[in-house]
Amino acid sequence: MRVLAVGDVCANDGSNYALKQIPIIKREENIDFVIVNGENSAQGNGITRESANLIFAAGADVITGGNHTLRRPEFFDTLDSNPFVLRPHNLKDATVGSGYCLFDMGRCQAAVINLSGQIYLDRLNCDNPFKCVDELLQRAERDGAKYIFVDFHAEATSEKRAMGFYLDGRVSAIFGTHTHVQTNDAQILPRGTGYITDLGMTGVIDSILGVKKEIIINRLRDSDMSRFEQASGSCALNGCIFDIDDNTGLTKAVKLICK
């Protein structure tokens, strides 16, 4: 099985670019399953029904979230009604949605887990992600999932790396999201789990993490707290392809995507 994981889709430009590029990648790379992080896909942050529908129209099977997923209360109904739109499972204050889903692929089941890190994400009230993932892996085992994929939405490289080794051999692949910068460490860990510290971003290239660069520079230089505005212009799609062994459920090859 070949799985495409796509990094944080940012705003309208990123969503529309994903709509163009994901079908091409699916066709050219013979992709069977697509996971997209959509927590920033709405214009101005968060996710809406409209931006989620655009990502599904692009070919996503599951949309994962992060620290902005609960930003828009109007999206709560979708989190409750659509099992394939996730938010980090370990958010203590969340009363809607889930960070776990089971996707029926016909011949087998694939589980997708969405978790938030704790380091440098002080504004979030999160349970320990390592303990939470143990519970969800037990659930995936009970559900008979042959493949398990984890989107670990976290800031610190050390926390992501630790989670990778913690899950090595226990899941098919784990990929980090949140920092919007693709890391050059796509690999297969010693026990067979596919890993990358961060998938990167799908959005405007001439920006700082999807935001107009002048706003970020002025904030850092002059403490100017002007409201963030999404950049516009030419885009790139960042992600990773994991080639999964159908016998073991572990990764046999990885490939970075920057398109």
Topology:
Elements: E1 2-6, E2 8-9, H1 11-29, E3 33-37, H2 49-58, E4 62-64, H3 76-81, E5 100-104, E6 109-116, H4 129-142, E7 147-153, H5 157-167, E8 173-177, E9 187-188, E10 194-196, E11 201-204, H6 213-222, E12 235-236, E13 238-244, E14 251-258
Could you give a short description of this structure?
By secondary structure, the protein is an alpha/beta fold. It has one domain (2-258): Metallo-dependent phosphatases (Purple Acid Phosphatase, chain A, domain 2), CATH 3.60.21. It contains 6 helices and 14 strands.
Key words describing this protein structure:
259 residues; alpha/beta; Purple Acid Phosphatase, chain A, domain 2; 6-stranded mixed sheet; 5-stranded mixed sheet; 14 strands; 25% strand; globular
Question: What does this protein look like?
Answer:
The strands form 3 sheets. A 6-stranded mixed beta sheet has the order 5-6-7-8-10-9, covered by helices on one side. Strands 4-3-1-13-14 form a 5-stranded mixed beta sheet, with helices on one face. The protein has 6 helices and 14 strands. With 259 residues, the protein is of the alpha/beta class. It has a single domain (2-258), classed as 4-Layer Sandwich (Purple Acid Phosphatase, chain A, domain 2). The model has no long low-confidence stretch (mean pLDDT 97). It is globular, with a radius of gyration of 17 Å. α1 runs parallel beside α2.
